[in-house]
């Protein structure tokens, strides 16, 4: 009996390792570009506020399902919910208007030629990519203020409201992000 239990535990953890291997952590702007590109391909709009909530719920989903976050970065607790600061800064000039273009780096190479490079998600299993696409499309169709409300109702935000309003709140911990996703999963379908 003890040996069977040990074997079952080993199989379980190996399964987690395989799942985690199918999802590699990505740069925040690459995940943002993934969302923006999907919105554009499907004739949907996405604002910076909406993008922030989608990134947050994607992070929660991957933490829950793959035990690894897709975004290589932190989320801050702000007045209107979670914010990935690097992505926010990149698109803040859009204000409340839809983001129409992915972010691209512009630079001159060693030969003086002007180049652009658009950060993209890399090394993601096609099945995982399809699952993420499906989730993003669902999230894009949820009104942005509903996404904000879902994050506000979660203890990870509402228990820190005073600190948030005074700009004193600590960043979200991965456990809080995962819990917020799990607590709201039914609303996100």
Describe the fold and architecture:
It holds the Pfam family SocA_Panacea. This is DUF4065 domain-containing protein. The protein has 189 residues and is mainly alpha-helical. It has one domain. α3 packs across α5, α3 packs across α6 and α3 packs across α9. It is globular. The chain starts with a helix and ends in a 5-residue tail after the last helix.
How large, in whole angstroms, is the Cα Rg? Answer: 18 Å
Strand order of the largest sheet: 1-2
The number of helices is 9
The main β sheet shows up as: 2 strands, antiparallel
Residue-averaged pLDDT, rounded?
90
Query: Got a strand count?
Result: 4
Portion of residues in beta strands equals 5-15%
Shape: globular
| Poorly predicted regions | 10-19
Total domains: 1
The chain-level structural class is: mainly alpha
In short:
The chain is mainly α and 189 residues long. It has helices at 2-21, 28-41, 48-66, 85-91, 126-140, 144-153, 155-158, 161-165, 174-184; strands at 76-78, 81-83, 105-108, 114-117.
Q: What's the arrangement of secondary structure elements?
A:
Blueprint: H1 2-21, H2 28-41, H3 48-66, E1 76-78, E2 81-83, H4 85-91, E3 105-108, E4 114-117, H5 126-140, H6 144-153, H7 155-158, H8 161-165, H9 174-184
Antiparallel strand pairs: 1-2, 3-4
Helix pairs in contact: 3-5, 3-6, 3-9
